[in-house]
Amino acid sequence: MPQLAGKRIAILATDGFEQSELVSPRDALLGDGAAVDVIAPDAAKIRGWKNGDWGDEVKVSVKLKNARATDYTALVLPGGVMNPDKLRMNSDAVAFVKHFIDTGKPIAAICHGPWTLIDAGGVDGRRVTSWPSLRKDLENAGAKWENAEVVVDNGLVTSRNPDDLPAFNEKMIEEFCEGKHAA
């Protein structure tokens, strides 16, 4: 029986997300029985970044202005350089992420995804990993950065890059399951 049946998961992204870092977690969550909504600030579709160029489009389920964070069990923040850089400058996106932080709901962020967590006040005192160039940003925000395939800190799952997706997806599902993470 799927572990995530009955759970509704939000993936917050915008144009420039790393293709595999949205698609792989989304597919893993769907495969484990979760309902998954891709949430974006404006568009009906967002476009990924793949192999140094624009990738595929992904259909947006819910526009950010219509999304209610209270409707979701957990949150996924894909990386890519452009995606989180745009999201962290969007006050609605930061507020959406902050809800998950403030309520203790699990969050999975990969690569550059933790940038948005910084602006939402979600890394101070937390163990995290990320793409290496974010290390100083995260440490300056109070995080304890580790160079590891996946780091889990009380419901916060972080990974470095697309090579880490198998471990990231496994730990993400584990933390999103009831009983594995206490809010």
Provide structural commentary.
With 183 residues, the protein is of the alpha/beta class. It has one domain (8-176): Class I glutamine amidotransferase (GATase) domain (Rossmann fold). Helix content is 31%, strand content 26%. The chain is built from six helices and twelve strands. The protein has helices at 19-31, 82-87, 91-103, 114-119, 135-140, 165-176, and strands at residues 8-12, 17-18, 35-40, 45-50, 53-59, 62-63, 74-77, 107-110, 127-128, 144-145, 150-153, 156-159. The strands form three sheets. It has a seven-stranded mixed beta sheet, with helices on both faces. Strands 2-4-5 form a three-stranded mixed beta sheet. Helix 1 (19-31) packs across helix 6 (165-176). It is globular. The relative contact order is 0.17.
What's the tally of helices? 6
What is the N-to-C succession of helices and strands?
EEHEEEEEHHEHEHEEEH
Distance between the termini: 24 Å
CATH class: Alpha Beta
Spatial extent as radius of gyration: 14 Å
The computed structural class is alpha/beta
Tell me the domain tally: 1
**Regions with little confidence, pLDDT below 50 for 5+ residues:** none
The CATH topology: Rossmann fold
User: What is the H level of CATH, i.e. the homologous superfamily?
Assistant: Class I glutamine amidotransferase (GATase) domain
Binned, the helix content reads 25-40%
CATH architecture: 3-Layer(aba) Sandwich
